[in-house]
Amino acid sequence: MRCPQCGHENAVDIKFCGECGTRLTVLCRECGARNAPSQKFCGECGTRLEFGPLSRQHSLPVAYTPKDLAEKILTSKTALEGERKQVTVLFADLKGSMELLADRDPEDARKLVDPVLTLMMDAIHHYESTVNQVMGDGIMALFGAPLAHEDHAVRACYAALRMQEVVRSYSHELRCAQGVEVQIRVGINSGDVVVRSIGSDLRMDYTAVGQTTHLAARMEQLAAPGSSRLTAGTLQLAEGVVEVIPLGPVPIKGLAEPIEVFELVGASTARTRFEAAARHGLTRFVGRSTELEQLRDANDQASLRRGQVVAVVGEPGVGKSRLSWEFTHSHRVRGWLILQSSSVSYGKATAYLPVIDLLRGYFELESRDDTRKIREKVTGRVLTLDPVLAPAVPALLALLDVPVEEASWRALDPRQRRQQTLDAVKRLLLRESEVQPLVVIFEDLHWIDGETQSLLDSLVESLPAARLLLLVRWSPPSATWSTYRCRPWRAMTVRVTLEDFQLGRTPHHSVRLADALAYVSPGHPAVERLDLIRELAGIRPSTQKAA
Q: Distance between CA 75 and CA 53 in Å, rounded?
């Protein structure tokens, strides 16, 4: 077997590497448990162990983890050791690899398998997560550890969708070139793990708490080729953001009761958990009257062709999204076209990602649209808006990843293409604002990429004469106000700062509010909740009973 530390080949019955002295273990393909080299079956789940060699390219995590991601992991590894974290575990493998590679030369087999592994790992790294193990024809990945992400379940689902898409594309190429098809299956589950240590090569030892890893591996085995399956635990964390098909209770080996299983079929049109929640109804909106009035004043100015920029700044969770939602769903913007886009933490390295999101909404593009359909929608809407904008079409198509055959576009160098792209988007928005007033929203500006920032700078230069309201939102301290104040156009920006609501203006108000929040009948055991709320609010215990 191959040493995971130095890559030296050792006999199967050797316990320590003869080259570097590293203790040799065999990872179970089923549950990820470590076993002694002499074992034929996993001591944790009873699965037969495989002793297939890995290519040197994929033998060490440090070899396939992007440099910037590796630096983040190693920088924070001291704080991670021994930490218990809720994560999402993903298993993915190449279905039917034994049959596919049976009659092939090992070198030819590697040429088929390695690109699939690379595509799967690239999908994981795209969402700033970690490939924990590469095992023969499959991988195991952790979302939420060692790098913490509150949306780890969503990222795992998006990564599964992305790897299915790219592998289907690769399979199409193989079918045309060699008459061979490849398919992968993916299993996802969320739960608790304990990160025990991270070595300098990024290899992690962890202990699964409960059935976290086991269930993820089971989901992979249950998945049909070309599909992804997940548990109810993962769906609960990603509900509303992804689309699934319920498959009902499924018996799982080792568990007394069947568990609910779902097939992941796509991403929903809701970009955030807030949007998903809004579709099911929101609670009554209270307060923020001053902030809403600021937005309305800016809206009135923009309607008079005095373009405005409004920056909504506040800590996560104080209500920036809700404030924007209330404004964009009020009668004040009736007859306005509202375009919305958001940045994501894993998208800073992708140029124009929020702009692409904005354009997809403007052109009403759907995930199932092919390049021909996208070209029709973009060209049709642009020429209908104004035939003068025809020269902007190639740049817009290129931005949406549609092949552009125009010789004039292909002849441009990167600098010229960049300038034409900025001009095309800017001209499109300004021309649309002449037809109907426009609200353009960019969320989470603290994660914005440099090219999108350049577009905003260019757009704002032309705002004074446009019926356009640019609403940007971000959370400090990642992007402080001083960062944006230094730009020339920040002088015309209205800043709306959201602060946390206080529990009550006086101790008397706080007690009344706490009583309302934690109402229980006298003598009910849940009266402890009232004492806890009072304690958190800094209120002295009251001798009064809950009414």
A: 31
